Structure formats: structure tokens, C-alpha cells
Amino acid sequence: MAYKVEILHPAQKQMLSLPKEAQVEISAAIDRFKETPRPVGCKKLRETGLWRTRVGRYRVIYSIDDGANLATIVKVATRRQDTYKGL
Fold it and tell me: 4: how many CB neighbours lie within 10 A of its CB?
């Protein structure tokens, strides 16, 4: 069953601030969410119920609504101590 992928405005801005090569890789990973919103290697974040997947040295943090078949990209960032704060 195909999922719709929505990217929130802050996540779009975060993606545009990354190098072009990273933008291409992350866009390809996000496109794959349409078929598989829980790809191999993704993890559910305990505190928030959000999901994260690694794309190179970057993390894509997103929510999944199975009832509406919707994956919403919340944040795109490098892995740092503050990557998961404020979610």
C-alpha cells in the first residue's frame, strides 16, 4: 500500500542547507518511504513515538500515520547531541 510523504517546512529548510550530494541521497531515501515507511535499519524513538532512519551521516526523523497512509518528515540533521531535543 502506497504512503503519501509530507515534508514540514522546517525540515525542507534543513535539507536545503545541506550539501547537494546529501540532498540527493536524502531525497531518494524519502521517496522510498512511499513504498516502505519502515525501511531496514529504522528505529522508533522511545520518548516521542517518532521514527528515525540514517542516510549517510544524516538522520531523517519522521512520523507515520498508518490509518491515513502518511509519513511526515519532521527533521533532517546530522547526528549531534541536540539532534533529538525539542521533538
Answer: 12
* Domain at 53, CATH number: 3.30.2310.20
Residues facing 19 on adjacent strands:
none
Residue 4 pairs in a beta bridge with 70
84 is a domain residue: no
pLDDT digits (tens, 9 = 90+) for 49-72: 899 999 999 999 999 999 999 999
pLDDT tens, 25-48? 999 999 999 999 998 989 999 888
Give the chain's domain count.
Answer: 1
* 16 part of a folded domain: yes
Confidence at residue 12, expressed as pLDDT on a 0 to 100 scale: 95
Over the Cα atoms of the chain, what is R_g? 12
Q: How far is CA 13 from CA 17, 43, 46, in A?
A: 6, 24, 26
